[in-house]
Design a protein that fits this description.
Elements lengths: L3 E2 L1 H14 L4 H16 L10 H9 L10 E5 L3 E5 L5 H19 L1 E9 L10 H4 L4 E7 L21 E5 L6 E5 L6 H10 L8 E2 L5 E2 L12 E2 L4 H23 L12 E8 L7 H16 L15 H13 L1 E2 L4 H12 L9
Parallel strand pairs: 3-4
Antiparallel strand pairs: 1-12, 2-3, 4-11, 5-6, 5-11, 6-7, 8-9, 8-10
Helix pairs in contact: 1-2, 2-4
Length: 351
């Protein structure tokens, strides 16, 4: 039988653990909300699976638990922050809040954050703004880590470099969250730990051969994640990854050229207010038309009905909020271990 957990209790529990690690109350709460949001939408490698690693960063001093980012550059509708290794989810929400508020005045606004800690599931940031009539784009890279080789190469030089975007339609938000690699570090680690292989080749060996085996990522020399598009069209994912590297590290003036160390992120957040263009009604008229065209599109023979990006996650989120969150089997034991160390009670499954 699958156990379910109350989402609000999970947020309270995760926030208490973050507070025990020394995070300010607002940072602890925001980090907890973003991690649980990932599980609500079914992104199980980037939800509470990250709680333990985040706590380890805080306890070790690699995550700054208190304080504010420094503004290192600003203009009318842009700011660049030094995140000072503050909690990534909190920094990203602060940046999105600022960009949304400024975009309501100027139409578009953006924040670049350098030296952030890891920011979790990018889709977790979208719905709160899309449901306010805003379009938000979030992307990140980790300049201290390399996982993906350029198309045609065999040596890792960049990370999966995810890109997320959300915007409103009359029936609910469209939410895109796509990595520029064909899989992620988190999924590769999970499958390796479970002794399983990918269903199709998603990595390259160190010699450049496609493989389903996640262990190829951990050899010496190491293999790499295939770029989005795989062996045939990976030039597309590679090109998009270069754009994300430019938006995150290059715009912030701090990246791979600085040879940073540690687990972190360079982040770019942009907000667009449709009301400052042709108007929100005109915007949603068009996005609604497209949503209707997608939903009425005949599926392939034997296939499921066609859906919008993020639609499954949005519906799953509503179901989880109503009936309890289904966690990946590896998560409850990890939560219990963390609760015991902190002297806290772990949330009980719903009856």
């Amino acid at each position: 039988m699958t156990s379910r957990y109350d989402a609000a209790q999970l947020v309270d529990f995760a926030a208490a653990l973050f507070a025990h690690a020394g995070l300010d109350a607002d940072k602890a709460r925001t980090c907890a909300e973003i991690l649980v949001e990932g599980d609500l939408m079914g992104h199980t490698t980037h939800g509470l699976a990250l709680l333990g690693p985040y706590l380890d960063e805080a306890y070790s001093g690699k995550m700054l638990p208190t304080g504010q980012p420094d503004i290192v550059a600003e203009a009318a509708a842009t700011q660049t922050w030094d995140g000072k290794r503050l909690p990534g989810p909190w920094l990203t929400v602060q940046a999105a809040d600022w960009a949304v508020a400024r975009a309501r005045e100027s139409g578009i606004a953006a924040v670049n954050i350098r030296r952030s800690c890891h920011i979790g599931c990018l889709a977790a940031y979208l719905h709160r703004y899309a449901t306010q009539g805003m379009m938000v784009v979030v992307t990140c890279s980790d300049p201290a880590v390399a996982s993906v080789a350029p198309f045609g190469g065999t040596k890792r030089i960049y990370t999966p470099d995810p890109l997320a975007a959300g915007w409103p339609t009359p029936e609910g938000p469209v939410m895109i969250d796509v990595s520029m690699s064909i899989t992620t570090n988190g999924m590769t680690n999970r499958l390796r730990g479970e002794g399983r292989q990918f269903e199709s080749p998603m990595l390259l060996t160190a010699e450049g051969a496609p493989t389903r085996d996640p262990n190829a990522f951990f050899t010496d020399p190491p293999g790499s994640l295939l770029p989005l598009g795989g062996t045939e069209a990976g030039h597309k994912g590679f090109g998009l990854a270069l754009m994300i590297e430019a938006l995150t590290s290059a715009l912030g003036g701090f990246g791979r050229a600085d040879a940073p160390t540690g687990w972190g992120a360079a982040v770019f957040v942009m907000a667009i207010d449709p009301a400052r263009f042709a108007g929100l009604p005109a915007f949603t008229r068009e996005t609604g038309w497209m949503a209707d065209a997608v939903h009425s599109n005949p599926p392939i023979p034997g296939g499921s009905p066609v859906r919008l990006p993020g639609e499954r996650g949005w519906k799953l989120r509503a179901e989880h909020l109503a009936n309890g969150v289904v966690l990946h089997p590896s998560i409850p034991p990890a939560l219990a271990a963390r609760a015991e160390r902190a002297g806290l009670a772990v949330p009980a499954p719903l009856p």
